[in-house]
What does this fold into?
Amino acid sequence: MEKTDIETRLRDVLVTELGLDAEKINPAANFETDLDVDSLGVVELLMAMEDEFGVKIPDDEAEHIHTVGEAIDLVHQKLNS
Amino acid sequence: MGVITPVGNDLDTFWQSLINGHSGVGPITHFDTTGYRTKIAGEVKDFDPADHFDKREIRRIDPFSQFFLVAGRQALGQAKIAFAPEDADNERAGVMVGAGFGGMGAFIDEVALMLDRGPDRVSPTGIPKIIANMAAGLASIENNLLGPVSCVVTACSASANAIGDAAELIRRGAADVMLAGGSEAAITTYGVAGFNQSRALSVRNDQPSRASRPFDADRDGFVMGEGGGALVLEDRDRALGRGAEIIGEIVGYGMSADAYHITLPRPGGTGAARAMKAAMADAALEPGDISYINAHGTSTEANDATETAAIKIAFGDEAYRVPVSSTKSMTGHILGGAGAVEAIVSLLALNQGLLPPTINQESPDPECDLDYVPNEARRFSGDYAMSNSFGFGGHNVALVLGSARVASTEAT
It folds into this structure.
């Protein structure tokens, strides 16, 4: 899967599952500071990513996700490894 | 004061429904009732969460908390009270909310998810959505209330306790302003199933608006309602000092326990009578001073006869004089939210000089022989009303409320 496809699907998930504002979502956006995702929201984010892309994201890998771009990269890496 | 109820989502609509005898009971729409003995309830209508909350809040806040928060906004708006984060008197303001269950719908959904998809698929926001104190927590967050914030869970007497406890906190100087009340949203798959199995609910499915008939001989159980009520309680001197419009006064608060059975009231009504007497003693009033009783009046066989007996014990000869009505005949039983909604009814009745009726009075029950204000609203005048609330577990609570007139004029 191409990164652009992942971005499109991730954007949809963030809007529908987490209720985030679609206009604020871009690869540079920081989940905590730009998108107002709190600690509980991070867990929702990981679950939504796992369900959408059929991947497993252990907590130690999840710790490195701060931006939308990093989330896209992690999914891309898992789908293509 | 503020209300979200099956008969109206603002004070005016709510009151007009009650004095016109409109029932809010109808077929259950929240879920498929196939296989259920009871298929009717008093659901809140025309309440779109999107009118009040953003998308994330809707996902994270159970309807029971939504009902209280919106009722609270109405109440604070009417009281013209708003606290900013930097206000110094935030610490003198708090919240006390009663709930019978809490987020029952969220609990059902999360357990179903866990059983279906496993323990690592439940929502991280499930627990804060479910816990019964979250309406209070959310109200404190939303309104910057930094003082006493708590929750009472005493089944169907919860929000009467919440109002009484909040008034006590002000009375003993622990707070100046308390947002008090309660809410419930238990018209859910398990809520109806569970009450059905305890044989507590009416099964008059073909006549929803006639199903809740407190004190009538043909009553066959209570009808579930949902919603919430909120009142702003304020220290009298503070309210007078800022020129607030005073709606009424919490003048008496009485509690007792039946210590008898998990769901049934103690026969003879001695437990409930003690709560009523305690409330009148707290208010330094006599039965002759009380002009209206808003009954617990659930429409169950056991409650209505027992409550009638209790009123006779507590009021003596005055029992046949004082009008008693159950507005649950129209709202259904809002469980943990009932006490707050009915305290509001009592204050509206005093200030409007109108008694809301008990509808569906068709077949007199010899055991229920008081004046239940049958079927039609009635003019009256008086300054004190009692509101009764009793809960599974044997909780008995009575509040005595004073009119705007006495609250504004009596000596402190």
DSSP finds four helices and no strands in chain A. The domain at 3-79 of chain A is CATH 1.10.1200.10 (Non-ribosomal Peptide Synthetase Peptidyl Carrier Protein; Chain A). The first helix of chain A runs from residue 3 to 16. Chain A touches chain B at residues 18-20, 40-41, 43-44, 47 (CB under 8 Å).
